[in-house]
């Protein structure tokens, strides 16, 4: 959930972006990079974490890597810019090495090894020539990244794009379960603002700062709640999920608000798409047996009377991102057994997203 401090950071960033005259996103159409199975179960063959003692980046290691990966690969979710200049997660198989956190940053750097494997249309967020060290303080769940001066050579056409560089770093590193916050330094000094558009960095960064921040007109920014939503975008013949953080009128019912915003759909002009009909009604959202139950009317089945994998993805990723409840049960008018295209069992958030296989 979002703290008042984090909300204030988002408000400040929103004002900077708003005053710059820069607008952001909305709807369009889609198909999928490595669609997950209908049950969206979390794979139990791969679990990646950073060490639980304070160490330098070259001493960080991954754990429980799939024994079948004879070429010693490890699966990580890393964030890149796409053709629309949004930050997008891609799950890649990369070589397993000592210092997996630093290896991840190499895959985020222009001219680095990722450029040989990420799809056309995606690009790394760190400038060419950037080097780094990383220390992890497990008691604080804090990763301290110290970049070389080349980090300051980044290109950003707007404050929004400048913030997205921070989003990509933060969301990539906090993908490790032992890290919740990221402190950015340059040549040993804490970076308090980005140099080009003066985006402030208030304390350690976290996912509470949002991603691909979406701004709405005629909204009192000081009385808002951020929700992170997942919609689809098409690249050539592939479809992939894009997270956006939308500021909505202040609410305490974050789960219901998340579903309401999914039904409203992507912001016009964003080239994002949703298969959820705007006539869909939410009957109830509640916690039961440690999972979240979302009950809809029959409109959720859409025109073809099916509950598609794409729609399941959007609901599961969005709800689990905002509520910290990892398992979702979808119902239609209180029932599960007769839902086309989905099993009646609760759905766990998968660890992989936009998985790329080469």
From TrEMBL:
<feature type="domain" description="GerMN">
    <location>
        <begin position="101"/>
        <end position="195"/>
    </location>
</feature>
<protein>
    <recommendedName>
        <fullName>GerMN domain-containing protein</fullName>
    </recommendedName>
</protein>
<dbReference type="InterPro" id="IPR019606">
    <property type="entry name" value="GerMN"/>
</dbReference>
<feature type="domain" description="GerMN">
    <location>
        <begin position="255"/>
        <end position="341"/>
    </location>
</feature>
<dbReference type="Pfam" id="PF10646">
    <property type="entry name" value="Germane"/>
</dbReference>
């Amino acid at each position: 959930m979002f703290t008042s401090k984090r909300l204030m950071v988002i408000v400040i960033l929103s004002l900077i972006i708003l005053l710059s005259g820069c607008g952001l996103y909305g709807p369009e159409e889609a198909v999928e990079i490595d669609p997950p199975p209908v049950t969206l179960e979390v794979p139990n063959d791969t679990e990646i974490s950073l060490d639980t003692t304070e160490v330098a980046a070259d001493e960080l290691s991954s754990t429980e890597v799939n024994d079948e990966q004879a070429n010693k690969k490890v699966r990580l979710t890393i964030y890149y810019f796409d053709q629309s200049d949004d930050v997008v997660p891609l799950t890649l198989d990369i070589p397993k090495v000592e210092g997996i956190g630093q290896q991840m940053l190499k895959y985020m750097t222009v001219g680095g090894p990722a450029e040989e494997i990420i799809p056309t249309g995606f690009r790394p967020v760190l400038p060419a020539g950037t080097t780094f060290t990383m220390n992890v303080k497990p008691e604080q769940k804090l990763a301290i990244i110290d970049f070389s001066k080349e980090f300051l050579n980044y290109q950003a056409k707007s404050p929004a794009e400048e913030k997205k560089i921070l989003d990509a770093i933060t969301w990539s590193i906090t993908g490790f379960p032992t890290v919740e916050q990221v402190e950015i330094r340059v040549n040993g000094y804490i970076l308090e603002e980005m140099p080009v558009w003066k985006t402030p960095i208030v304390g350690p960064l976290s996912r509470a700062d949002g991603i691909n921040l979406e701004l709405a007109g005629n909204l009192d920014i000081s009385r808002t709640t951020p929700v992170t939503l997942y919609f689809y975008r098409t690249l050539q013949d592939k479809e992939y999920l894009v997270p956006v953080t939308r500021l909505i009128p202040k609410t305490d019912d974050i789960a219901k608000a998340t579903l309401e915003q999914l039904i409203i759909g992507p912001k016009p002009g964003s080239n994002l798409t949703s298969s959820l009909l705007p006539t869909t009604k939410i009957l109830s959202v509640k916690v039961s047996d440690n999972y979240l139950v979302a009950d809809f009317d029959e409109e959720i089945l859409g025109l073809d009377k099916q509950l598609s994998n794409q729609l399941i993805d959007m609901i599961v990723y969005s709800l689990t991102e905002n509520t910290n409840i990892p398992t979702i049960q979808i119902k239609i008018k209180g029932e599960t057994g007769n839902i086309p295209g989905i099993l009646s069992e609760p759905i766990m958030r998968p660890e992989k997203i936009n998985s790329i296989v080469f």
